Amino acid sequence: MLYRQRTARTARTPPASMFTLCRGFWGGGTLKETDLNACVPFPRLTDKSFPELDPVITDFRLQIPDGNPDGLNPADLPNGCSRSDLSLALEDCMAALDLFLRNEFEEAQARLRSRTKDSMYHALTYATILEMQAMMTFEPQHILAAGTTMKEAQAICQRHRKKSSFSKNFTEEELHAEVCYAECLLQRAALTFLQDENMISFIKGGIKVRNSYQTYKELHTVLNSSAYSQGHNHGHFEGGVKLGVGAFNLMISMLPTRTLKLLEFVGFSGNKDFGLQQLQEGSKEGTFRSFLCNMLLLCYHTFMSFILGTGEGDVHDAEKLLQPYLQKYPKGSIFLFFAGRIEEMKGNLDAAITRFQECCEAQQQWKEFHHMCYWELMWCFTYKKHFKMAYFYADLLSKENCWSKATYMYMKAAYLSMLTADDCLTFGETAFTLFRQVPGLKQKIAGKSLPTEKFAIRKARRYLAENPIPLPAPPLEMMYIWNGYTVIGKHKDLTEGMLKTLDEAQKKLDSCPRTDLSIDDQCLLSLLKGLCLKHLGHQEEAEHYFTLVLCNETQIKYDHYLVPNALLEHGLLCLEQGRRDEAIKLLEAAKQNYKNYSMESRTHFRIQAALHKAREWPAKERRKAKSLGCPVTEKAKEPQIHHISPTVPLPVIQP
C-alpha cells in the first residue's frame, strides 16, 4: 500500500511570473526579459480566494512504507466502491471511446452521460469529449459547457481521493482518483485561458497547471518505486501518469529559451526525449489513455514540430502510430484527418485532398471535423495555386467556424487578389471590400488576439487608405507563416510554379510607382524567392535574396518580421551546407537582436528548434557535409547584420 504526507489544503503562493507566462504562451503573446525581473510573489492565496476552485494539495509526497503498518485490507475502500467497480467503469469507458472513434459520437456521449454523477472515469471522459469539441469550434457556449462539465468531473474525482490526512494507506481507486484529478486540472486550465480575459483567471489557470504538474511528478515517482504494488488496473493508472508526464515534458521542452528560464524559475522542467519516450510507451500499452498518448504524438509529429519547428515533422513515426488505428477504424474521422495531414506533409497533395474529402463524407454529426479538413484543403489548393478552390474553403470556414473570422476573411480577400477582375465577378465580392472588413472582425482568445489574426489585420490595414497599395502576394506570404514552403519544396514542379507566381508579382511591383511601402514589398518577395530557390537547390541565389532583406533592414517601414525570419532561413541554409558555426551565429542574432514584431512567438519557436538541431549536429550529418565538399569545422564568418547603411538599395528598386 501507499501513503503520503499531506499539508493543509491551501494553495501555494503563485509567482507573478505565472500570470505573465499564461498570457505570453497560451495567449499567443511574447515574454520579455523584464518578466524575469518581475517575479515577486502575490500575497498568499488560499482556497477562499477562489471559492469556485476545488481544494487542491500542492505540497505532498507519495511514499512507499515498509509492509502494511496500519494493517488495512487493500480491498476495504472508504468510498464504498470495490475494485471490480473501477474495472467495470474503465471497461465501459473504453467501450464508449470505441463508439466515439467509429464516429458514433452521440451514442458515445449518451453511454457516458448516464454515469457522470458517480464514476470519475465516466465524468472525465465525457468532459474530455466536450472539451475536444470546444477546442475545435471556439463557440462560447461550447467552451462554457465544457468548463462546467470538467469542473463537475473534478468534483467527482475529489470525492474519490484520500479523505484522511492521517492515514498513510492508499487504495488503488484513490491512486486513480489522483491521476484523474490531475488530468481535470490540466484540462480546466486550458479552458480557463480560453474563457476569460482578467488577471484572476490567468492566476487560477496557472495554479491549476502547476498543481497538475506536481501531481504527475509525484505519481511518476511512485510508479518507479521498487515497493510499489500493482493493482488490477495498474496499466490504466500507469498510462495516465505516462500521458501527463510525457505531455508536460514534451510541451515545456519546445518553448523558447526565454520562456524556459521563466518556467524553471517557478519549478517546471522538460526533456523532449523523455517526454516522447513516455508517450510512446503509453501509446503501446492498449490502456484507456493509449489513444490520447497516440493523438498527442500524432499532433506533435504532424503539427507542432512542423508549424513551430523547422518543418521536418517525423512522417515515418506518424505513419507507424496511425496505421493500427486506421486499420481498426477505416472510416474514423480522426484517423482519416491525420492520414490526409501526413500525405500533405509528404507533398502528395492529391492523395491528401482525397483523404480530407473522405473524412468529411465519413460522418455528419460533428461538423467540427469538417472544419479541420476545410482548413487543410484550403492550403492544399493554395500549394497547387488553385486559388478559386482555396477561396471556396476559406468561405465555408468564414460562415461555419468561429476560430478566427478575421483570418478567414483575410484569406478570402487574399485569394481574390490573385484572380482577374472577371473571375472575381463570379464570386460577387472583391478583394478590396473584403480586406476592409478584416479589422472589424477582431476577437480575443485568452485575453489576447490570435497572433495570426493580428498579422492579418495589420496587413489588411493598408486597404483602409483612400488610395490603397495592394499587397504583392498575400496568400503566398501567409503560406510562409504556416511553414507551407517545406511542403511544396518536396516537389520541384510545385516550387517552380510558386517561383513563377513570385516573379509575376515582382514584375507588377516593378511597374508601379515607388511608394513608402515598396521596400517592404520587395523584401517580402525576396524572402519568399529565397525559400523557393533553396528548395530548388540554388543555394547561392537563395543566400543572395536572404541577404538582400538584411541589407535593407533600416528601410523597412512596417514588416519588421522579415528581418529575423530572413536570418532564420539563412541560418537553416547554412546548416544544410554544413556551416554549423555560422548558422548558430545567424540564429542567435535573430533571437537576441529583434523583438516586438509580427508573429514573434512563432518565429522564436522555430529559432529554438533550429538551434536545437544545430547544437545536436550528428556525426552522420558532418560526414555528409564533408562528402559534399562543405566545410564543417571552418571558422564562421561574422554575419553582417549590424550598422548597415540605410542607403543601400535593392537592385530592382531605383532610389
TrEMBL record:
Q: Record's InterPro entries? A: IML2/TPR_39, TPR-like_helical_dom_sf
Has the keyword Lipid metabolism been applied to this entry?
A: no
Give yes or no: UniProt keyword Transmembrane helix.
no
| Record key words, sorted | TPR repeat
Enumerate the SUPFAM superfamilies for this protein: HCP-like
Family named by the database record: Belongs to the TTC39 family.
- Extract the PANTHER family matched here: TETRATRICOPEPTIDE REPEAT PROTEIN 39 FAMILY MEMBER, TETRATRICOPEPTIDE REPEAT PROTEIN 39A
Q: Write the protein's name.
A: Tetratricopeptide repeat domain 39A
Q: Which organism is it from?
A: Takifugu rubripes (Japanese pufferfish)
